[in-house]
Amino acid sequence: MILGIETSCDETAAAVLEPPYTILSDCISSQVDVHSVYGGVVPELASRHHLRNITFVVEKALKDAGVGLDAIEAVAVTQGPGLIGALVVGFSFAKSIAITRGLPLVGVNHIHAHLNAIHLEGHDVPSPYIGLVVSGGHTSLYLVKRPTVHMLLGTTRDDAAGEAFDKVAKVLDLPYPGGPVISRLAESGDPKRFSFPRAWLRDTPYDFSFSGLKTAVITTVKGLKRSGGRIPVEDIAASFQEAVVEILSKKAVRAALDVSVKAVVLSGGVASNLRLREVLRLLCEENGLLFLVPAPSLCTDNAAMVAGYGFELLKRGKTLSHDADVYSRAF
Ligand code: KG4
Ligand code: ZN
After folding, report:
1. In 3-state terms, what secondary structure has residue 32?
2. Which residue has the CA at smallest separation from atom 2 of ligand 1?
3. Rounded distance, CA 88 to CA 135, Å?
4. DSSP per residue over 306-325, as a string?
5. 270 lines ligand 1 (CB under 6 A)
6. Is 137 in the pocket of ligand 1 (CB under 6 A)?
7. How confident is the model at residue 28 (pLDDT cuts 50, 70, 90)?
8. What pTM does this model have?
9. Which pLDDT band holds residue 92 (cuts at 50, 70, 90)?
10. Ligand 1 atom nearest residue 241's Cα
11. 135 lines ligand 1 (CB under 6 A)
12. Sign of CA pseudo-dihedral 136, 183, 237, 200
């Protein structure tokens, strides 16, 4: 049994996994209420809240799983990328459990954990496949050859897709995180009312750029605010969301056709967006590709995915020495 721990951003999470995919518990303490008043994550506050919650969350995960620490055979923890002060809390906690219990410690890359989350649902994914991770900090397109062998095909040059949702929400005076609220408003909006720009980046077609789109939305909103009329929040949300969804979907399918794979797997917090799931599924079907996406609770940050990817690393003997440290940036 593997204990997974995740503290890379604003969720303190712990899970117990009975490999390969029986999730015995998946416990999350969200800090959304702490950060929403600031319109985004405040790193120092995130660290303090992780410190306050980590013991309770890990104990709860063990209790929900109906096991004690003595049943745990390995500890998997997010090692990076993320906020350094936040990562350190979970990493030190995991390391101390591993050292005191004499257990193997596995360091998990948060993006790879998102990418691998689909396997926790027991799907048989035909490898190689295209994996698209879309979250608050990352927008990355991978060619996944085996669970632990991936080739990065492209990534964002500026804002991540989730970050663009969060920033657009802020200018519309909507709460953090922006993704869920924008997608809800978009349901009753007209996606064709505003034609916002799509950055196709023809020279590097698998890369993404969302800052131009974000700036166009912000400029439109500020212009409307200056003219004093009602802001058509629903139409702006729908038009913005449509642009993000179109870019993500077309680039993922383009990559799948270019490298001749049979499947596209979507993951990360933005993957819980219903419109993205719908459009990418349709585009995949039209092109004879299998489309897979985990349940929304496995798309947003959680510790089950950390334990799941930890298991893949453990199987391959990839454990950490006790002097290992966290890292903030993707590499
Ligand atoms: O993967 P995640 O939980 O944390 C990071 O690793 O960043 O992703 C969080 C991001 C936030 O930017 C949030 O606004 C976005 O995912 N998000 C969504 C939706 N739900 C969460 N974006 C669009 N539509 C959603 N339904
Ligand atoms: Zn994440």
Report:
1. helix
2. 269
3. 21
4. HHHHHHHHHHTT----TT--
5. yes
6. yes
7. very high
8. 0.95
9. very high
10. 23
11. yes
12. positive
